[in-house]
Amino acid sequence: MELHRRNVLGLGGLAALAALLPSCASALPEADVGAAGFGEGATGTVRLWCRAATVVGVRQVVDAFNASQDRLTVEVTPVLDAQYVTKLATAIRGGNVPDIVDIDDINSMLFIYRDSFTDLTPLVQQLDFVDRINPGQLRLAVRDERNYGVPYIADASALFYNTELFQRVGIDPAVATKDFDGILAAARAIGALDEKTYGWSVDGNAAGILGFVVQPHIWAAKAPNVVGEVGAQRGSLADNDAVRRTFQLYQTMWKEELMPKTNFSGDGSRWGADFRDGTVGMLPANFSVAALNATPEMRAKTGVVLLPGPAGGRATFAGGDNLCIPRGAANASGAWEFARFALDLPQQTNLPAGGYIPVRSDAATPEYRSTFPLAVTPLEQNAAAYAPVTLAYNLLFNQQDSPWIGSFRRAVFDGDLDGALDQGQDDFDRILEQAQL
Asked: How far is it, in rounded angstroms, from Cα 319 to Cα 385?
C-alpha cells in the first residue's frame, strides 16, 4: 500500500460508525462456514468492494478468477478510500452488504470489534499454508483468537538505497543501514558528493507516509507507540527512547541539509521521484514507489533492506488489504471460493506486477526472485511485519492533523523534540480514550 492510498476516518466518523453498527451488525445472519461444500462449486455472482487505491491489484486477481471458470463471476465495485468505512457501515446498517470486502488491514478491527464480519476461523485454519501467511497482517484480522479475515496483498515499507552512490563514497550499504549511526554516516558522505545529491528523503508533509516509513524504526527496537489491548489502549511517546532517537535522527539530517528542502512540503504527490532520478542515497518507501515506477536502469542500481531500529533490528509496516466476508453476505460460499483463489501461488507470485507483495512467504519461487528481485526482501522477512491493532489508527497517524505527523514536524522541522513528544503523548491518549468509548 503506498501510503497515499490510505483512507481517513475522523472522530466524528468513528462516532458515526459506532452509531451505525452495534445495534444491527450482529443481527445479520452469519454464513455457516462449516457446512459441507462451503466455498466449493458456487454459482452466480460475488459482489466485491475494493478500495479505489488498490483496484489495480484487485482487478488483476479478479480477471484471473473470472477467466478460470464460467459458473461464478466476481463483480468489482471500487470505493473511494475516504468514503470506504462509512459506506460499508451504512451498507451493514441497511442489511444490503457486498459478499466480500477488500479492506485496508488497519481498518479491519473497526468492523471486527463490532461483530460485522463472518468468523472464518475453521476455513483459515484448514489452509495448508496458513503458517506461511504474513503474521503481522493476519494478526490485524484476529480477535479473541478467532479469524475474521485473511490477508491477500501486502504493502511493506522498506529502505531502498542507491548502490552507485554508496560505491562512490566507498561505504558498504549492508553495514551502513544496520543502525542509525551507520545511516547518519552514510547520509553525510553521500550528501557531501555535490549540492544536488542528498543522503535521505522523506515526504515530511504526508501523514500516511510518515506513519508507514517512520514507525518501523521504533518497532525494530520492540518499542511500540500504542500499547495495551483494544478497548484499553494508551500512547507511548513521551518516555519512548526509540521514538526520541528516531525523531532525533530526522532532526539531525534536516538540520545538516542531508534531506532535500522539498521534504518540508512533500505531500506524497511526487513520492520517491528524487530517488528514482538518482539524486538520493536512501529512501524509506515501498516496492511500488521505489522500484515498480523506476526505470530499468535505476532498478538495476537499487538495493533494499528492511528499516532498522536505532541500535539495530529490522521491521516493516504490515500494510496491505484483508479479504473479509460481511455478515449477511448473499453468496458467502462464492466469496470464500474467490478468497481461496486469491491466495493460490499463481496469483500471489504475480502481485508485484501490480505494485504489491505476496502474503505467502513460499511465493518467493526462483521465477519470482528473477522477475521481482526488489520484492524478495520484504517477502522473505515478513515475520518482521507489524502494525498496531487499534480502533484509532487513522486518527493517530493518517489524518493530516494527526498527532504523529504533528509530533514529527514539531521535532524535525521546528527542532522542539521535548515539546513534540509531550504533546504527542497527550494527543495519543486523548484520541485513544475517545475512540474506545
From this structure: 8
* Residue 271 to residue 268: CA distance in whole angstroms: 5
Residues facing 309 on adjacent strands: 312
Lookup: cell for 70 = 464460467
Banded pLDDT at 7 (limits 50, 70, 90): very low
Asked whether 161 and 173 are in contact (CB, 8 A), the reply is yes
- Say which amino acid occupies 29: P
Cα torsion 7, 10, 14, 15 to 10°: value is: -150
Provide the b/e sequence for 59-76 (b: ≥16 CB within 10 Å). ebbbeebbeeeeebbbeb
Residue 115 is given by DSSP the state T
Domains defined for the chain, CATH in brackets: 3-156+318-386 (3.40.190.10), 158-317+401-435 (3.40.190.10)
User: CA-to-CA distance for 117 and 119, rounded, in angstroms?
Assistant: 7
Q: Which helix (H) or strand (E) holds 315?
A: strand 312-317
Q: What is the DSSP string of 42-106?
A: --EEEEEEEEGGGHHHHHHHHHHHHHH-SSEEEEEEEE-HHHHHHHHHHHHHHT---SEEEEEGG
Global pTM exceeds 0.70: yes
Q: Where are the beta strands (DSSP E) in 220-301?
A: 226-227, 234-235, 280-285
Is 50 exceeded by the pLDDT of residue 3?
no
Kindly tell me if the per-residue pLDDT of 363 is higher than 50: yes
